[in-house]
Specification:
Elements (H helix, E strand, L loop, with lengths): L2 H8 L2 H6 L3 E3 L5 E5 L2 E3 L1 H13 L7 E5 L5 H17 L25 H8 L14 E4 L3 H8 L5 E6 L2 H15 L6 H13 L7 H14 L4 E5 H6 L1 H12 L5 H6 L1 H8 L2 H6 L1 H5 L26 H15 L7
Parallel strand pairs: 4-5, 4-6, 6-7
Antiparallel strand pairs: 1-2, 2-3
Helix pairs in contact: 3-5, 3-6, 4-11, 7-8
Bound molecules: 3'-phosphate-adenosine-5'-diphosphate (PAP).
């Protein structure tokens, strides 16, 4: 019996989840494998709620990523691009709300499906969303996200990042929220669980490849971006994003410096220095500021041994073979 049939048969999510393959992550936390992805119990329940109850609108926009790949940045850029025609960058909602925001509205500007909306309720009231078009975010792989979307023309933007920087970012994030020193032993055990693919939302490569394939098969509805390209060629990349979102940047805007303004507004330096991000709390009750750190490419070089580099490169090279993706 496959997992969808199991769900139908048991109806009750708790029973179904208890029958799924399970394993433990680097902290010994139990994870369940659903449609090839490892989730914590609460997250998976929310994923199931989402799959059963979400009703897309044609205009919806979904920001997707593997955790620590640039979610916050992409959310900010998406909001900035969509809002620019309404207010102009300077009176922008990002100056008073975090892209995770709970400041202006209870749900925030770009709420996560499974970590916020469907975690709190199996049928959240989406009429309370403040943005138009509605903006959502997720870390689910594309095949799971697509289930309730069916033939909806809504748009999905994905940001991918080098797994080694993802890991280092996750290591610092975890240490910070757990109030621990970012010690080597934490990094090493996280590293092992990433290599096994048994980690929250893992395996990394399956998450990335689901969106990569989706973007090649359906480029009108799925855009695949990378953190590294955003860093190296930000102007080109935000023009690409604007085009995809259906709000292309005009020649006039280019000449008036709007692109530069949006990039500055969404820069790590600017966002992390806004009062709302220095003091505010996010959907998960974490301080907004935990989502901002160095924001650099190749920070892993300061932390990985050559053995770690070799091992993870070998795994990723093998998994990405034939996908056109490079490390
Ligand atoms: P999430 O997936 O848990 O939502 P996400 O925003 O993807 O988190 O990851 C945070 C990373 O993005 C941090 O990377 P670092 O640890 O390597 O520094 C953070 O610094 C970086 N980041 C956040 N905002 C920006 C931004 N505006 N520009 C560039 N990088 C950013």
């Amino acid at each position: 019996m496959n997992q969808t049939e199991l769900l139908k048969k048991f109806g009750d999510d708790d029973n179904m989840i208890s029958l799924l393959p399970s394993d433990s992550d680097f902290q010994g936390k139990k994870l369940y494998n659903y449609q090839g992805c490892w989730y914590q119990y609460k997250t998976l329940r929310a994923v199931l709620h989402f799959k059963r109850n979400f009703k897309p609108l044609d205009t919806d926009i979904i920001v997707a990523s593997y955790p620590k790949s640039g979610t916050t940045w992409l959310k900010a850029l998406t909001v900035a691009l969509l809002e620019r025609s309404k207010d102009g960058p300077l009176s922008h909602p990002l100056t008073s709300d975090n892209p995770y925001g709970l400041v202006q509205s209870a749900i925030g500007l770009v709420p996560f499906f499974e970590l916020n909306l469907y975690l709190k309720s199996s049928t959240p009231d989406l009429t309370k969303l403040s943005s138009s078009p509605r903006l959502f975010s997720t870390h689910m792989p594309l095949h799971t996200l697509r289930d309730p979307l069916k033939d909806s023309p809504c748009k999905i933007v994905y940001v991918c990042r080098n797994v080694k920087d993802v890991l280092v970012s996750r290591w610092y994030f975890y240490s910070r929220i757990e109030n621990k020193e970012a010690g080597r032993s934490i990094l090493e055990s996280m590293f092992e669980s990433y290599c096994r693919g048994v980690n929250y939302y893992g395996p990394f490569w399956d998450n990335v490849l689901s969106y990569r394939r989706g973007s090649l098969e359906d480029p009108k509805h799925v855009l695949f971006m990378t953190y590294e390209d955003l860093k190296a060629r930000p102007r080109e990349q935000i023009m690409r994003l604007a085009e995809f979102l259906g709000c292309p940047i005009t020649q006039e805007e280019i000449h008036s410096g709007a692109v530069k303004e949006i990039l500055e507004l969404c820069s790590l330096h600017n966002l992390s220095n806004l009062d709302v991000n220095k003091t505010g709390k996010a959907w998960d009750n974490l301080d907004h500021n935990v989502y901002f750190r160095k924001g650099e490419v190749d920070d892993w070089k300061n932390h990985f041994t050559s053995e770690m580099e070799e091992k993870i490169d070998m795994i990723i090279n093998e998994k990405f073979q034939g996908s056109g993706l490079k490390i």
